[in-house]
Amino acid sequence: MKRRNFCTGSMAAAFGFSIGGSKLLAGDDGPPRCGVKDELANGIFRRKSKWGKNSLSYHMYARDTGELSKEEWDKEFRLAFDAWSEITPLVFQETDSYSGADIIVSVGRRRRESFGRSGGVLAWAGMPSGKNYDGQLLTKFDMAENWVLPGNSGIVLRSVACHEIGHLLGLDHSNDEKALMYPYINNALKPREDDITKIQKLYGSGKEEK
Predict the structure, then answer these.
(1) 164 an active-site residue?
(2) Do residues 127 and 20 touch, judged by C-beta distance below 8 A?
(3) Which of 39, 76, 86, 164 is catalytic?
(4) Beta strand pairing status for 155-156 and 147-148?
(5) What is the pTM of this model?
(6) Domains in the chain: ranges and CATH
(7) Which of 36, 47, 42 minimizes the C-alpha distance to 7?
(8) Which of 54, 60, 65, 82 places its Cα 20 to 30 Å from the Cα of 72?
(9) What is the pLDDT of residues 86-127, one digit of tens each?
């Protein structure tokens, strides 16, 4: 059985995105692994990039939610954002404003130039640039894929959402197989020890730090 894997960061340009972007890829016929070269995954191109504020807004732009309802997508992303908020000073608030949101979560049928074949690119996300980023980032999910809730057979939405949010906050992939940010999907539903250590180096650990 093929494992799904992530491809991120420094090789993004090779896949058609600007440097700093992230894609979630499916495995191919070769050994199951991340498409990023090992030396890149080990940090040669890593930057200490982060948001310059702790209060971030996000907008759910859902044109087609597939087998899951819009309410289920909203709930799973709310839980995914909460998982990062629980271990940092970060606060995430959903907004109805597309233009005013810090983060756009785009859900819809894929365009060939964005996702390619079914079972290929599942999702991608931007990453902040600089130490005090204050722009707008996008993460996009391909509705041609089989997104499911935890405990079901398919691509667990909350796990992928948590992983992509990690990129949106400035995290690269981890070499720790147990980490949420590990290149291969392990269905982690929240940040684990390695993820917590790295995100707290960027933003701190307590709500008192807001």
Answers:
(1) yes
(2) yes
(3) 164
(4) parallel
(5) 0.80
(6) 4-204 (3.40.390.10)
(7) 36
(8) 54
(9) 999 999 999 999 999 999 999 876 554 455 555 556 778 888
| All residues at 6 or more sequence positions from 144 whose CB lies less than 8 Å from its CB, including other chains | 109, 110, 115, 118
Segments in the chain forming alpha helices (H): 38-41, 70-85, 112-115, 157-168, 193-203
CB distance 172 to 8 below 8 Å: yes
Measured CA to CA, the distance from residue 79 to residue 179 in angstroms comes to 18
Retrieve residue 41's tokens.
Answer: 């995954």
In the numeric block, the tokens 């590990």 are attached to 182
- How many Å apart are CA 15 and CA 6, to the nearest integer? 12
**Dist CA 172 CA 11 (whole Å):** 12
Radius of gyration of the chain (CA): 16
